[in-house]
Specification:
It is a single chain. This protein is mainly alpha-helical and 144 residues long. 70% of the residues lie in helices and 0% in strands. The two termini are 22 Å apart.
Length: 144
């Protein structure tokens, strides 16, 4: 079962890398944001230059890389607290990715840019990591 834990850590780190990298690449393949990174788009939205995107996306654009960094740290930390915070962080990051996909691409795959795909890869990686961690937990760790 030790290989399972190592694979889970690799999945956590992969998700963290994807969610950190997505902030620096375009999220859409077409339109006004196709040449801007997510962080650039956040500043355009905040400065009210780009008004076609909801203003709450600025918070998500900042939340997702922070969540990725938190997952990277938590992936390497053993213990019950870290094991509890990892899935919570995964849930927050997944919700942020889905909300950004809705706001920026309306879930149209022909509009997905590199950032959209990285966000989805991160979601798949955290689902795999949570599944692997659940498999490796003993009965004593799950039940009080």
């Amino acid at each position: 079962m030790r290989w399972c834990r190592r694979l889970a850590v690799a999945c956590w780190l992969g998700a963290a890398a994807a969610w950190l990298a997505q902030a620096f690449v375009p999220w859409t393949a077409r339109g006004p944001l196709s040449r801007s990174s997510l962080l650039d788009a956040a500043s355009l939205i905040q400065d009210r230059i780009l008004v076609s995107v909801p203003s709450w996306t600025v918070w998500l654009a900042l939340l997702l890389p922070v969540t990725g960094a938190a997952i990277a740290v938590l992936a390497l930390v053993p213990g019950v607290v870290a094991a509890t915070l990892r899935p919570v962080s995964a849930l927050v990051g997944t919700a942020a990715v889905l909300a950004l996909l809705d706001a920026l691409t309306h879930f149209r795959t022909d509009r997905f840019g590199v950032g959209s795909w990285l966000g989805i890869i991160g979601v798949v990686a955290v689902v795999a990591a949570v599944s692997l961690e659940w498999k490796t937990r003993s009965r004593h760790e799950v039940l009080p």
